């Protein structure tokens, strides 16, 4: 289901793009960007937030690929998407446009970050 949503989002973006424009599009499973049951150094933790080291590594990758549009799988709720955008902006990568797509799973959603307007 999530893969179909991601492919649909990319298709819609490409359908709305002009022929002369070039878009760099990436898709990324960000592995539970929000509270999830996790193994930590202190053992198993229920509803534990994504570690800051993992968030920092994700932002580093996103800055390096510098895609115009990024489709993210396993995004948490909207506040987590807002947090990621804010942190990326503070590090020099501004995605002015974003969509948060609710999924059947209450904890894992699909999100789209874009430097170009979404249509």
Gross morphology is globular
Cα radius of gyration in angstroms? 15 Å
- Head-to-tail CA distance between termini: 22 Å
Given helix and strand content, the structural type is: alpha+beta
Strand fraction: 25-35%
What does the average pLDDT come to? 89
Fraction of residues in helices? 25-40%
Low-pLDDT parts are none
The quaternary state of the protein chains shown equals single chain
Query: Can you count the beta strands?
Result: 6
Instruction: Tell me the strand order in the biggest sheet.
Output: 1-4-6-5
Instruction: Count the DSSP helices.
Output: 3
**SSE order, as H and E?**
HEEEHEHEE
Largest sheet: 4 strands, mixed
Q: Could you please describe the fold and organization of this structure?
A:
By secondary structure, the protein is of the alpha+beta class. It has three helices and six strands, in the order αβββαβαββ. It has helices at residues 2-16, 52-65, 78-90; strands at residues 25-33, 36-40, 43-48, 69-75, 97-101, 109-114. The strands form two sheets. Strands 1-4-6-5 form a four-stranded mixed beta sheet, sandwiched between helices. Strand 5 (97-101) and strand 6 (109-114) form a beta hairpin. It is globular, with a radius of gyration of 15 Å.
